[in-house]
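Recall the central idea of this unit: under ordinary conditions, the amino acid sequence of a chain determines the structure it adopts. In this exercise we apply that idea directly, starting from the sequence alone.
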Amino acid sequence: MEKLECPRCHQRTIPAWRKQVLGPATSATCPGCGGKVGVPMAAILSATPFFAALIAFQFIESFALGAAVLVVGAVAMAWLHQTYVPLIPK
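Accordingly, the structure predicted from this sequence is:
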């Protein structure tokens, strides 16, 4: 998997999976420079598709269809987080 650029040292050292688990209150350490990186508070908005899927799940009578909606919401959330949420120095 590709590595992401550290906003401090500008080297590609941050694993993409590590960014997926970052939230506004958590940070990661860059293996290259040792600096802390994180995501901005607006990263919470990337979870909107998943929360919408959770609400929709309550009203869907078919469990299989509800599970599919949850999976689509989770994938959309992960894609938005990976594509549009920037890494910032902490």
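The mean pLDDT is 94.
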